[in-house]
Amino acid sequence: MNALIPEAYAQAAGASPGGSFAPLLMMVVFIVIFYFLLIRPQQKKAKEHQAMLGRIASGDEVVTAGGILGKVVEVGDTITTVEIADGVRIKVQKFQITSLVPKGTIKGA
């Protein structure tokens, strides 16, 4: 009846070549790789973003997360006022500012 599927015969399990520590060692290697490829770069980028937000001052030209390019008029603890055109000012949350751009970028845009 089982002509297509041969029966499997259990053999006595011998000692594995890596010993009993091989699975544990493999787990540690995966955790180290995961840390250096994913966690560490993300923490570094977040630290750089926080430092950039701390350096923002009036007169800086910035880009928001929504892609709005403007000039910082007023800086608060959590809210920043950005002028996007002559006389047009918007208030954005400070953490929504994604990058500083070189001065004069707005005039060239």
What attributes characterize this protein structure?
alpha+beta; SH3 type barrels; 2 domains; 5 strands; 35% helix; 27% strand
The amount of helix comes to: 25-40%
CATH topology of the largest domain: SH3 type barrels
Q: Residue ranges: pLDDT <50 for 5 or more in a row?
A: none
Please provide the count of β strands: 5
Widest beta sheet: strand line-up? 4-3-2-1-5
Secondary-structure element order, N to C: HEEEEEH
How many helices in DSSP terms?
2
How many strands, what sense, and barrel or not for the largest sheet? 5 strands, antiparallel
**N-to-C terminal Cα separation, in Å?**
79 Å
Any idea what the radius of gyration is?
29 Å
Overall shape: it is elongated
Secondary structure category = alpha+beta
- The oligomeric state is single chain
Rounded mean pLDDT score: 87
The CATH class of the largest domain is identified as: Mainly Beta
Strand residues, percent: 25-35%
* Number of individual domains: 2
Q: How would you describe what is shown here?
A:
The structure is a single chain. The chain has 109 residues and is an alpha+beta fold. The protein has 2 domains: 19-55; 57-109, SH3 type barrels. Helix content is 35%, strand content 27%. It contains 2 helices and 5 strands. It has helices spanning 22-55, 105-108, and strands spanning 61-64, 69-75, 79-85, 88-93, 97-101. It has a 5-stranded antiparallel sheet with strand order 4-3-2-1-5, with helices on one face. It is elongated. The relative contact order is 0.12.
List the helices and strands and how they pair.
Blueprint: H1 22-55, E1 61-64, E2 69-75, E3 79-85, E4 88-93, E5 97-101, H2 105-108
Antiparallel strand pairs: 1-2, 1-5, 2-3, 3-4
